[in-house]
Amino acid sequence: MKLSRRQSLKTMAAASAVSGAYIPAAARAAATARASRPIRLVVLDIGGTIIQDHGEVPNAMHGAFAKHGLDISFAEIGSWRGASKRGMVKHFVALRAKPGADADALTEAIYRDFSDAVNIAYAHVQPIAGAQEAIESMRKSGFLLATTTGFDRQQTNMIFGRLGWPKYFVTSITSDDVVDGRPSPFMLFHAMEAAHVDGVAETVAVGDTPLDLQAAMNAGLKGAIGVYSGAATEDKLRAEVHTHILPSIASLPQLLAAEF
Question: Most CB atoms closer than 10 Å: which of 81, 93, 176, 249?
Answer without folding.
Answer: 249
